[in-house]
C-alpha cells in the first residue's frame, strides 16, 4: 500500500525518547574504550570538584583556632595548595574528558547523518515523488546537530550531576543531621519533577516550531527553485504570503515556547531558593548551638552552591535534551520509512551476456483501482532496437521505471538474458542500463562534472570524447570556461537542448549494454535532432535499446515498434508494417507529417520576411 504520510509531517509520538536514545548505541559501541576513559575522567573531575568544599572547610577550621604562629599557619598553607590543585584538577579532567570523547561523538554524528542520506537514496521513487526537499533537508540538519548536543548533555551533564548529588547527599548524611540530606533530596526531587512536567507540557510548542520551520523552508526552496515560473505569473507577493503564513505559525509557537520557558525558570528558582534557605537556616542553627563548626557552615554553603549551579543549568539541559530528542525523532523517522525496493535474499550480480530484455505479461498499478500497464508482453532481442509510441499518459515512461526497478511489477515479470530482474542486485541491474530521460536535471556543478557523473572514474579525455559524440564540442568550445562552466541549479543556465546533449554524453560515458532513450530528442530543434539521431544511432549500435518517443520520425529505423494506448499494446510491427495497417500509428504519422509541413512553411515564411527586411535596411 502506498504510504501517503510525509516525512516532515511525522509527529513526535511516532517514536519514544528511549527508542531514539537506543538508536545511538550501535554508533557509540565502536568507541566504548574511549567513552570508558572519558567517563573515568568525568568521575575524577567530579570527585575533585566535591573535594573543594571539604578542603575549604579544613582551611576555615584551621584558621579559626585563634593562633597565628608559623607552625599553625603551615597547615592551611598546605591545604590552600591542595585547594588550588583540586580546582586545577577539575578543569584538567574536564578538558581531557572532552578531548577523548570528541572522536566518538563526532564520528557518531557523521555516521548517522550518512546513514540517513544513504537511506533516502534507497527509498523507492514513490517516496521521493511525495517528499518536500526543503523540509527533509531541514529535518536532517537539525537532527544531525542535535546528536552531538544530546550525547554531550547526557554523558557530561546529567550523569555527572546525578553522581555529584548522590555523593553530596552521602557526605551530608554521614557528617550532619539527617535533615540536611532530606531537604537536599526533596529539593532536588521537586526540581526534577517540576522540570519534567513543565518541559513535557511545553515540548508541543517545539514540535509546532519544527513543523512550521520545515514547511517554511520547503516553501522558500520550492519558490526559489521555480524562480522563473514565479516571475512569469507575477506571483512574488503570493509566494511571500505563502512563506509568511508558515513563519507566522513559527512565530506563534516560538512566543508560546518563550513564555512557557519563563514560567519554568521562575518555578525552578522558587524551588531552589526555598531549599537553599532552609539548609542555610539549619547550618546557621548548628553553628550557633555548637553542633557544627564555622568550617562546616562554609562547606555546606559551598556544597549547595556547587549543586545549585549544575541544577540551575540542568533545567536548561533537560529542556535541550527534550528539544534534541524531538529534532532527532524527525530525522530517525526517515530511517523508519520502508525502502520498499530491496535486494532479494541471495540476489546475484547481473552479468549481461547478450542483453535480451523481455516483459512477460507485465501488469502494474500504483493503486488497484487505477491500472497503468495491462498484460504487456514483448522482447527486445540482444543488440536490437524496440520503440514504444503512444499518447501522453499511455504508460510509456513507466516501462523504463520498471526496468530500472524504481517500482516492482504487480504482475508478470521482467527478465534480462532470461533472469528475473528481482533476483539480481539493484546496483548491478542499474549499472547495466543507461538512460537519456525526457526531463534532464543537472547538478549545480561544471559541465565536466555532469558528464563524468556517468562514470566518475573517467579521464578528462574520455569526457571530451563523450561530449564530442553528443555534439557538444562546438558549444563547449564557445564557452569562456569550457568544460568548467557551471550549469546552475538543475541546469537552469542551459537550454533544454543543451541539457539533453549533456544527458546523452553522460550515458555515452557510462557505456552500458542496455540503453533507454525516453523522449531523448524532445527538447531539440529539427536540425539538432537530426545530428543527435545520428549520434544516438552510433551509440546504440550492437546494444539492446528501448526507445520511448512521441516524435515518430525518431523511431522509423526501429526493429519493432509498439503502440501503447491506455496501458495496453494495441499495435506492433515495423514502421512500414504499421503504416500499411492503417491503424492508430498511421493516424499519428499523418498528423505529425502535416504538422511538420506547417512548421516548415512557417520557417520559410519567416526566412523570406527576414530577407526582405534585410534588403530594405541594406
Question: Which features would summarize this protein structure in a list?
Answer:
618 residues, alpha/beta, ABC transporter transmembrane region fold, Rossmann fold, 2 domains, disordered C terminus
Radius of gyration: 36 Å
CATH topology of the largest domain: ABC transporter transmembrane region fold
Helix content: 55-70%
Overall structural domain count: 2
- CATH 2nd-level architecture of the largest domain: Up-down Bundle
- Which structural class best describes the helix and strand composition? alpha/beta
Largest sheet, spatial ordering of strands: 6-7-8-3-9-10
Order of helices and strands: HHHHHHHHHHEEEHEEHEHHHHEHEEEHH
Q: In this structure, how is the largest beta sheet organized?
A: 6 strands, mixed
Q: Which percent range describes the beta-strand content?
A: 5-15%
Report mean pLDDT, rounded to a whole number. 79
Give the overall shape, derived from the CA principal axes. elongated
The CATH class of the largest domain, by name, is Mainly Alpha
Write the CATH homologous superfamily of the largest domain.
Answer: ABC transporter type 1, transmembrane domain
Please provide the count of β strands: 10
What gap, in angstroms, lies between the N and C termini?
70 Å
Low-confidence stretches: 1-15, 609-618
Count of DSSP H/I helices = 19
Amino acid at each position: 500500500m502506498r504510504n501517503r504520510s510525509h516525512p516532515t509531517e511525522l509527529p513526535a509520538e511516532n517514536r519514544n525518547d528511549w527508542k531514539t536514545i537506543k538508536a545511538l548505541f550501535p554508533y557509540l559501541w565502536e568507541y566504548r574504550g574511549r567513552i570508558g576513559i572519558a567517563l573515568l575522567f568525568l568521575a575524577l573531575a567530579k570527585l575533585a570538584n566535591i573535594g573543594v568544599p571539604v578542603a575549604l572547610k579544613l582551611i576555615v577550621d584551621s584558621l579559626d583556632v585563634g593562633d597565628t604562629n608559623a607552625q599553625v599557619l603551615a597547615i592551611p598553607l598546605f591545604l590552600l595548595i591542595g585547594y588550588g590543585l583540586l580546582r586545577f584538577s577539575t578543569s584538567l579532567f574536564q578538558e581531557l574528558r572532552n578531548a577523548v570523547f570528541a572522536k566518538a561523538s563526532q564520528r557518531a554524528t557523521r555516521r548517522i547523518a550518512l546513514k540517513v542520506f544513504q537511506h533516502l537514496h534507497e527509498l523507492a521513487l514513490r517516496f521521493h515523488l511525495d517528499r518536500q526537499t526543503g523540509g527533509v533537508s531541514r529535518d536532517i540538519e537539525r537532527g544531525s546537530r542535535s546528536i552531538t548536543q544530546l550525547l554531550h548533555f547526557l554523558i557530561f551533564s546529567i550523569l555527572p550531576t546525578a553522581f555529584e548529588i548522590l555523593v553530596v547527599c552521602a557526605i551530608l548524611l554521614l557528617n550532619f543531621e539527617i535533615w540536611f540530606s532530606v531537604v537536599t533530596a526533596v529539593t532536588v526531587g521537586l526540581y526534577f519533577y517540576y522540570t519534567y512536567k513543565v518541559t513535557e507540557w511545553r515540548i508541543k510548542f517545539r514540535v509546532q516550531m519544527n513543523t512550521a520551520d520545515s514547511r517554511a523552508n520547503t516553501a522558500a526552496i520550492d519558490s526559489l527553485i521555480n524562480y522563473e515560473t514565479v516571475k512569469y505569473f507575477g506571483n512574488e507577493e503570493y509566494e511571500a504570503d505563502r512563506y509568511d503564513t508558515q513563519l507566522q505559525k513559527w512565530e506563534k509557537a516560538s512566543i508560546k515556547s518563550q513564555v512557557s520557558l519563563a514560567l519554568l525558570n521562575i518555578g525552578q528558582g522558587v524551588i531552589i531558593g526555598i531549599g537553599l534557605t532552609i539548609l542555610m537556616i539549619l547550618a546557621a542553627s548548628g553553628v550557633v548551638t555548637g553542633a557544627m563548626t564555622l568550617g562546616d557552615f562554609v562547606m555546606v554553603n559551598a556544597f549547595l552552591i556547587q549543586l545549585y549551579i549544575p541544577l540551575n543549568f540542568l533545567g536548561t539541559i533537560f529542556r535541550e535534551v527534550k528539544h534534541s530528542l524531538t529534532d532527532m525523532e524527525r530525522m530517525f523517522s526517515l530511517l523508519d520509512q520502508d525502502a520498499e525496493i530491496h535486494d532479494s535474499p541471495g540476489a546475484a550480480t547481473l552479468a549481461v551476456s547478450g542483453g535480451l530484455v523481455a516483459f512477460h505479461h507485465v501488469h502494474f498499478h500504483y493503486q488497484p483501482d487505477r491500472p497503468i500497464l495491462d498484460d504487456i508482453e514483448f522482447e527486445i532481442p540482444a543488440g536490437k532496437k524496440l520503440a514504444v509510441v503512444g499518447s501522453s499518459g499511455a504508460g510509456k515512461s513507466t516501462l523504463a521505471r520498471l526496468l530500472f526497478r524504481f517500482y516492482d511489477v504487480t504482475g508478470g515479470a521482467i527478465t534480462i538474458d532470461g533472469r528475473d530482474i528481482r533476483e539480481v542486485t539493484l546496483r548491478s541491474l542499474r549499472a547495466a542500463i543507461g538512460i537519456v530521460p525526457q526531463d534532464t536535471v543537472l547538478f549545480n556543478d561544471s559541465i565536466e562534472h555532469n558528464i563524468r557523473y556517468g562514470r566518475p572514474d573517467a579521464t578528462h579525455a574520455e569526457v571530451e570524447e563523450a561530449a564530442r559524440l553528443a555534439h557538444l564540442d562546438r558549444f563547449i568550445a564557445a564557452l569562456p570556461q569550457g568544460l568548467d562552466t557551471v550549469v546552475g541549479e538543475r541546469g537552469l543556465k542551459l537550454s533544454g537542448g543543451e541539457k539533453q546533449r549533456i544527458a546523452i554524453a553522460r550515458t555515452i560515458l557510462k557505456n552500458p549494454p542496455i540503453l533507454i532513450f525516453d523522449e531523448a530528442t524532445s527538447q531539440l530543434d529539427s536540425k539538432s535532432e537530426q545530428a543527435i539521431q545520428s549520434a544516438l544511432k552510433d551509440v546504440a549500435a550492437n546494444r539492446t535499446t528501448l526507445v520511448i518517443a512521441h516524435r515518430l520520425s525518431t523511431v522509423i529505423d526501429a526493429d519493432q515498434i509498439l503502440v501503447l494506448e491506455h496501458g495496453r499494446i494495441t499495435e506492433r510491427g515495423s514502421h512500414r508494417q504499421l503504416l500499411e495497417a492503417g491503424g492508430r500509428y498511421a493516424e499519428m504519422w499523418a498528423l505529425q507529417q502535416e504538422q511538420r509541413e506547417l512548421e516548415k512553411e512557417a520557417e520559410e515564411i519567416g526566412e523570406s520576411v527576414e530577407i526582405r527586411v534585410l534588403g530594405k535596411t541594406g
